[in-house]
Amino acid sequence: MKLYESEAKKVFEKMGIPIPKQYGVIRSAKELDALQLKFPLMLKSMVLVGGRGKAGGIKKANNLEEAHKISDVLFKLKIKGFPVDCILLEEAVEETGACYIGITMDPATFNNVIIVSASGGVDIEQVALKNPQAIVRKEISDNNKEISKTIALDLASSLNQSMKGKNECSKILADIISKVYATYQRFDARLCEINPLLITPSGVVAADAKLVLDDNALFRQVELLEMLGITEKRHDVAERTKNELRAQSAGFPYIDLLPQPVTKDQGKLYVGLIPGGAGYGIFSIDEVSTIGHRYFHDQVVPVNFMDSGGGPPQNRVAEMFHLLMDYPVVDLIVTSRFGGISSCDIFIRGMIQAVIERYENGKRMVPIFGRMVGTDLPSARAFLEKAKAENPEALQHVTIYVGNQRIMADVIREGIQKAFEVKGWKP
User: Fold this and answer.
1) Cα 248 versus chain centre, distance
2) Cα separation of 383 and 348, whole Å?
């Protein structure tokens, strides 16, 4: 669960991490007149996505008139599709230097990792790609609540040297690193980050604050949530793609596996996946990748994870197929329905509904290859055969194997081969 910057800064203040003076959070420009403000000050859009500065969501005001004008603009702004409902007001601080401090967990080792860089105030991901030597990374093999003074000072000294700071600055930075790590551990965080930590004439200050709590540990954070006035679990608001937002609205889990927007390699085949459950979804990704590597010279790319959920209604199934056919990168849809809780009959009706609707409306069509077995299989088979007899042109590129005479790996391989042939490509 992500916290707003204003909430994260309350936590930082509680943990002794210096923050700029806070004037409050407003929900309309009129509220500015009731506050005791000192200028210049910063107006920061409160949204749970990154890139606020680049999107024009953070501005400096030198007087009350400017603050009113900026507020009016910010309240009309959308940042990555999310409207600005509130604005944080805080003092503007004089900067003589900036750095980055972050704590997270390495998913490969499950060890906590401290990351510091003298490149503060910019996208740390871009720094990692373009200038990796500018990042210092320390993996912590134990799970103690605090780090040793030696580790903190070593990281601070390395950071201070990169920033060409004075010797006494290392002790200050070491203290901040220790407190950021303690915050991460105390509040069961998945990520605790300051970007940037500003060096000012009067000391250091966390100009920004990012804190993401582990949903699974929220039951241990009742006191924290009460302090922040959070009365119910906040749904994750990540930087979702258009496909992910569309799937969310339709009521089914979906994740894009490729960075958006996609730059398509015309020599590869891009496979969309509609499985019968989350486990089958993960299997499908793995199997498509493995078959692509083994038989098609790594020219096959799985594009998504999807889960229909237990017993999806027909219209939801149809929307799953519509979504992938509307996704321009997809060359082939591989589907697998193992009907346990879910009905094969409803699934096949939803799929055929989507295909016929698209055919009749002249929309983009994508070949479908798959298999179904399980609950309501006889009625699903009868409906599929009847639909194919009545709509041969619309369903000419739909191949569904009924029953378990063929393993899914062979079905996937055949589908990929046929899709390459349709495209006229030689893998």
Assistant:
1) 13
2) 8
Q: Prior bond to 261 cis, omega within 30?
A: yes
Total number of residues shown for the chain: 427
Could you confirm whether domain 97-228 is CATH 3.40.1090.10?
no
Report how far residue 381's alpha carbon sits from residue 418's, in angstroms, rounded to the nearest whole number: 22
10 Å CB burial of residue 70 (0-12, 13-18, 19+) is buried
Per residue in 302-345, pLDDT (tens digit) is 999 998 877 789 999 999 999 999 999 999 999 988 766 678 99
CB count in 10 Å sphere of residue 170: 21
Question: Residue 196, preceding bond cis, omega within 30 degrees?
Answer: yes
State the maximum Cα–Cα separation within the chain, in Å, rounded to a whole number.
82
Alpha carbon distance 157, 151 (integer Å): 10
Q: What is the pTM assigned to this prediction? A: 0.64
Fold of 21-91: Dna Ligase; domain 1 (3.30.1490)
